[in-house]
Automatic annotation (TrEMBL):
<dbReference type="InterPro" id="IPR010998">
    <property type="entry name" value="Integrase_recombinase_N"/>
</dbReference>
<feature type="domain" description="Tyr recombinase">
    <location>
        <begin position="188"/>
        <end position="363"/>
    </location>
</feature>
<keyword id="KW-0233">DNA recombination</keyword>
<feature type="domain" description="Core-binding (CB)">
    <location>
        <begin position="76"/>
        <end position="166"/>
    </location>
</feature>
<keyword id="KW-0238">DNA-binding</keyword>
<dbReference type="InterPro" id="IPR044068">
    <property type="entry name" value="CB"/>
</dbReference>
<dbReference type="GO" id="GO:0006310">
    <property type="term" value="P:DNA recombination"/>
</dbReference>
<dbReference type="InterPro" id="IPR002104">
    <property type="entry name" value="Integrase_catalytic"/>
</dbReference>
<protein>
    <submittedName>
        <fullName>Integrase family protein</fullName>
    </submittedName>
</protein>
<keyword id="KW-0229">DNA integration</keyword>
<dbReference type="InterPro" id="IPR050090">
    <property type="entry name" value="Tyrosine_recombinase_XerCD"/>
</dbReference>
<dbReference type="InterPro" id="IPR011010">
    <property type="entry name" value="DNA_brk_join_enz"/>
</dbReference>
<dbReference type="GO" id="GO:0003677">
    <property type="term" value="F:DNA binding"/>
</dbReference>
<dbReference type="InterPro" id="IPR013762">
    <property type="entry name" value="Integrase-like_cat_sf"/>
</dbReference>
<dbReference type="GO" id="GO:0015074">
    <property type="term" value="P:DNA integration"/>
</dbReference>
<comment type="similarity">
    <text>Belongs to the 'phage' integrase family.</text>
</comment>
<dbReference type="Pfam" id="PF00589">
    <property type="entry name" value="Phage_integrase"/>
</dbReference>
């Protein structure tokens, strides 16, 4: 272990015992550059160059020595880069999470630009706050902020990645995202198109030039399936003869759902216009590949149909569920299965529509007995 002193004229380092350069004779007493060499237990050497004065060089040397001793005796190791852990997590998510594509998209867009070169222990709650506050929909329009729900999803994702790294002992520090209060989200707001809006949407889809895209939207409206589920549908997942479709969950919970007549018609139409014979996907992109995003196409269709700009594609799923619930012909358990909800709590938001249907049914008794009473 040593601190070497620098000759600026010859670009050489010497022991501090030397007062002058043996090559050019330049005095080294006022040198402002030092090289620190510290040996590690495994025989390697840590070298660092410091510009300043000897006092600073000694402080840096002491810090390096402390880190080396901690690694040797306490097993303390350098925290990994968050970007490296994310790459490992993304591989795991593809095998275990249904929403892994959304996670990758959110991380790439909102998190990656802020964490380049940062180790997990050097990212603080204030850094997470900045990431959440800077979330915008359109880089060309800084006023277009994301909804609280989207911000919460990004915060939850960062927290989950840290927890995953801690659980697998890639990282032994604290989770900075745990200290951030998530944005308040009104979960009970349910988007639903009225009958006039549905008619406008269907009329727009009939004339839409990208018919595969139009069929994808119609299929969502008639089945209530999630966007990612529809984009991932393959021909092998469909039993046209018996009218069933199979959904595969990465968590190992496959579901088989019946298709109504309109949904079957849509699939037959999609088969007629698939990009090429042997195409795997029912609703592929123009190249026959799995769609990665549908946002731009949906935005154009939504605007052409005159729907609210805040109406999301996911609102088609809510529309499907709301009309079924208010029909009086579908109970909550059946609705849960059709929506492929893992728990009844997720379907509970539609319960009030069932209650209203029951109330209307009970109201029929008023009319019946009032009419009888009037005749007496």
């Amino acid at each position: 272990m040593a601190i070497l002193i620098y000759c600026s004229k010859c670009n050489l380092f010497y022991s501090r015992k030397n007062n002058k350069c043996s090559n050019c004779g330049l005095s080294l007493t006022n040198s402002k550059k030092f090289r620190i060499n510290v040996s590690t237990p495994n025989g390697s050497r840590i070298t660092k160059t410091v510009e300043g004065n000897l006092t600073l060089a000694r402080r840096v040397e002491a810090k390096i020595k402390t880190e080396v001793m901690q690694q040797k005796h306490l097993g303390i190791r350098k925290a990994p880069l968050l970007s490296e852990i994310w790459e490992k997590y993304a591989i795991w998510a593809k095998e275990n999470k249904k929403s892994w594509r959304h996670d990758i998209g959110r991380w790439k867009k909102h998190v990656s630009p802020h964490i380049k070169g940062k180790r997990m222990d050097k990212i603080y709650p204030s850094d997470i706050e900045i990431i959440i506050k800077k979330m915008i929909k359109d880089p060309d329009n800084m006023k277009m902020k994301h909804a609280p729900a989207t911000k919460k999803q990004v915060l939850v994702l960062i927290r989950r990645v840290y927890n995953w790294a801690i659980q697998l002992e890639y990282y032994t520090g604290s989770n900075p995202a745990k200290k951030i209060q998530p944005p308040k989200v009104q979960n009970q707001v349910t988007e639903c198109l009225n009958k006039d809006e549905i008619e406008k949407l269907l009329n727009t889809l009939e004339l839409w030039p990208n018919q595969l895209g139009a069929l994808l939207v119609k299929f969502s409206l008639y089945t209530g399936l999630r966007q990612d589920e529809i984009m991932g549908l393959e021909w092998k997942d469909v039993d046209l003869e018996n009218g069933f479709i199979s959904l595969f969950d990465p968590k190992g919970k496959p579901a088989t759902l019946p298709l109504n007549n309109e949904a079957l018609k849509i699939i037959y139409e999609a088969e007629k216009i698939k990009p090429f014979e042997g195409c795997m996907y029912i609703f592929p992109n123009q190249f026959g590949e799995r769609r990665v995003s549908f946002y731009k196409i949906w935005s154009r269709i939504r605007d052409a149909a005159g729907l609210s700009k805040t109406f999301r594609f996911h609102g088609l799923r809510h529309t499907f569920a709301s009309y079924l619930a208010s029909s009086g012909e579908v109970d909550l358990y059946t609705l849960q299965k059709l929506l492929n909800h893992q728990s009844p709590q997720m379907t509970q938001r539609y319960a009030h529509l069932l209650d209203e249907t029951l109330r209307r049914g009970a109201g029929v008794a008023d009319k019946v007995f009032n009419n009888i009473n009037a005749e007496l």
